[in-house]
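Posting this for the archive.
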Amino acid sequence: MKSSIRYALLLGGASMLGLASAAQAQDAPAADTEQADTPAEPELVVTGSRVIKNGNNSPSPVTVVQTSDLLTTQPGANLADALNVLPVFAGSRGAGSNPSTGGSASGGNGSANQLNLRNLGITRTLVLMDGLRIPPTLFNGAVDVDLIPQMLVQRVDVVTGGASAVYGSDAVTGVVNYVLDRNFTGLKLEASSGVSEYGDARQIDAGIAWGTNLGENAHFEASYQYHDGSGILRRSDRPWMNLVGVAGAGTTANPFTLYSNLRQRDYPAGGVITTGPLTNQVFKTNGVLSPFTNGTATGTAALQVGGDGGTWDSSLLQPLESHQLFARLDYDFSSTTRAYVQFSGTFKQNENYAEYFRLNNVQLTSNNPFLTLAQQTALAGGGTTFRFRKTMSDGPDRRQHSLSDSDQWMVNAGLAGSIGGFDWGLDYVHGRATLTTRVENNMNQQRLAAALDAVIHPTSGQIVCQASIANPSGYGNCVPLNPFGPTSESQAALDYIYGTTHYRAVTTMDDISGSISGSPFDTWAGPLTVALSGEWRRVSFIASSDATSENLVNCAGIRYNCAATQTVYYLTLPANPKVSQTVWEVAGEMNVPLLRDSAIAKLVDVSGAVRFTRYNTSGDYWTWKVSGNWHLTDNLRFRGTWSRDIRAPTLYELFAERFVVNVNGTDLLTGLSPIIPSINGGNPNLKAEIGKTLTGGVVWKATPQLTFAIDGYQIQVTDAILAVNGGEPSFQAACYASNGTSPYCDLQRRPGSFTDASAANAWTAVYNGLFNISEIKTWGVDAEINYNGRLFGMPVNVRLLGAYQPHLWFRQPNVASRDQAGAAFGPVGFAATPTVRLTGFVRLKPVENFTVDIMQRWRNAMKLQNEGIFAAGSNRMEAFGTTSINLSWSVPSKSEMEFYVNVQNIFDATPPIGGFTGNGTRAGLRDGYAYGDDVRGRYWTAGVKMKF
């Protein structure tokens, strides 16, 4: 029954949205609402096809948005952020996507704006500029769309259906194509400045674009844009985000519970003694002991509400400075042959502040000279050493601090023309992306071990490092560390134990493509059109790092807190030898008209495409697509597509070098949360994912001013590449339920068996691997309504877009299926997928030269996650919506000049809090809100635009 309903929505319900989408896609809201009642229907090359020239005949759902409309209600935003207000997007990544230091370097630039259709993954959304593939920003396949010249983008086409047969790998969930204005003439100037209600997240934006004709045959255009954003440096800068986290085990006896003001019990800022006669005594002030004050207990032993425990406080929104450059020259050799050369580059730096370092039960001597004599005497009663924990959060800001310089540029050149009624084109793209990350305050664990072992020098009587006596050549410059108090460490000691490490990655792409299309003959219903295309592509990657997981400590001369298996630096980033991937592709496409002006249809045509792809790394693949378009009348049409698509594994997934990241997750077997290494790496045996997509829709122009569209879709991806993390609760549970026989047990390392729950058997490492073992399946409906007309004699334009996505299934062997739809959090940094997403735009022109634009966004309520048992009221994040308004004044003059004032989130809506259960004891480090919700609060922007 459910299956029948689903297909009814896909094929029958498609009848309503297809109409609206196609009309809306290609009849985008007019910029001037006074002309809104007579919208243009331009002939254009349709994104998603090489043979269909009229958007009203596109069988694929295509949403078209004008750049000016996107940015009007979000001035100062980059085009990616503006585009992400469309409901078809969910889970896109950017500067505010709960950043992490390691992720920004090893998995992609933390400030990269990466588009994600339906939250199936950024690498399953293909991004194009003028129909050409944009080079990846990093070898994980992510594309930073900030490379695109925002001021010269005319429109953005979003195809929400598989298109691998037309464009190649990655177009599983759809295509985003940025279409440039290649005929721009004149001069445009823009400038704006914004600030949040809290006085932070300041940003300045400025841009210039210029275009001119050079004689009769050439055209040149160029642009430059500058952005400077201060970000939000601490989560505590938002009072509603008060150390949010989840405690508990997700069982009936100990359900997951959402808390605020969570503290990690064992890691107070001043340090706590954990063994011996002074156990649970804490240094609340430097050098002075007092009893540890416990907070309220939770379902996780290491977490308490309130009390003296330690806290986290990472970045909320990354500071970002960027420069974007673009230039293009077009030249017509004749009326049938033309050429172009173009350059686009983005150069930016972002910052991220991550966690404080923690002393994890380190071993100290009872006669440590930084202790008072009374303290030494008391501790000596328990032996020559004792254990100690501390969060180094007070005093100078020593959070792990990464600065990433991302320099990305691409050069395009091509020839195009027509011959014998056929259009042809040949293009070359060369792209290069360089990411250089400097990690400051990266703990040097070898130096830390030396500095913690402080003694009195037998000759000088000064406090020195024991290692400087035992190994003076290695530790002659060691500065002893006083850990006993919130701000007890000297600046010299901090400078000694913290280091700066460096990572550099270079990704390059060379792409040559060619195509020819046209109509060889006419049929009884119109011209048959065909297209042939071919492409060769090579992507390569190389990385260097001075802090890899192979750089291990040398314990010579160090008595305590040093093990030969430790890495020198706490945060390690992998070096990679040069690896590459080469692709050959050839494709054909055909559109066949079947009926025209008949008794049963105004127009019926069918189209098909097929592509053969050969990867030197992962084999040969066929992809295909069949489509149908049925104009029942001039105002009512139905459409549908069925496709087989692929996503080949990226260089990151195939060849990522082994690297280690320290984690603090919860071992569900023992209930403990030690800091352990998470060991990551690629899998060269991966093969391509296979996608199957079915869409169906209807477009109905009810009146010349009112259009409706509805499209249903179903997407299924088999052999999906999944990051299987041995620490993820579902894989842990599968391991323990099997008494250690499950292959998921191979993703953990522990001293004893997988049935021993004693503290001595706590895990010592987890592995994070990549495998073709997952199935992803989702289905839903997209809808759009457009009205262009008048209200009380005043021009008005209304555009409403909605997405309904009730399920997003991830299925793996031997573990319960995971439905991410309607969940705010998930493993491996999974972003929120509200099941209902709505966006509305309203434009009013009450008087001449004055325009009011209003945008309303809304998502429905979500669960924190769809697995585990939660305490009453804990597994819910309320619905959230924001309203933005833009007031603009046009100054009558020979040139076009516009001043505007904009308020985003005008009612200062506060997003509901939440957290991921898999974050263990790291409450306040990440999460706290559902990505996609506005964390800035009310935001004010003022600016000016001029065109000459």
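Residues 1-43, 98-108 have pLDDT under 50 and may be disordered. The radius of gyration is 30 Å.
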